[in-house]
Write a structure and sequence with these properties.
The chain is mainly α and about 70 residues long. It contains three helices and no strands. The protein has a domain of about 45 residues.
Length: about 70
């Protein structure tokens, strides 16, 4: 059995106990899971708006779109 620190490092939580969150939570897109909370998408909300946001199809799509938009 590992220490609390080992568990935190494996789970992705920081020492302060916070969970990595999607950067789009502050200004979500209409299609984001956090904009349409229901029993049908609560699993996706908890998964993709938090620790596994990099695997979210919406996050990936919006990040790719922002990367190709030329700066004004």
């Amino acid at each position: 059995m590992g220490t609390r620190g080992d568990h935190i490092r494996k789970s992705g939580h920081t020492e302060g106990g916070s969970v990595p969150m999607c950067r789009f939570l502050k200004k979500p897109f209409p299609q984001c899971y956090c904009m349409n909370i229901s029993g049908r998408n609560i699993h996706n909300l908890l998964t993709f708006c938090a620790e596994d946001y990099a695997s979210c199809r919406i996050y990936r799509s919006m990040t790719e779109q922002q990367a190709v938009v030329p700066a004004a």
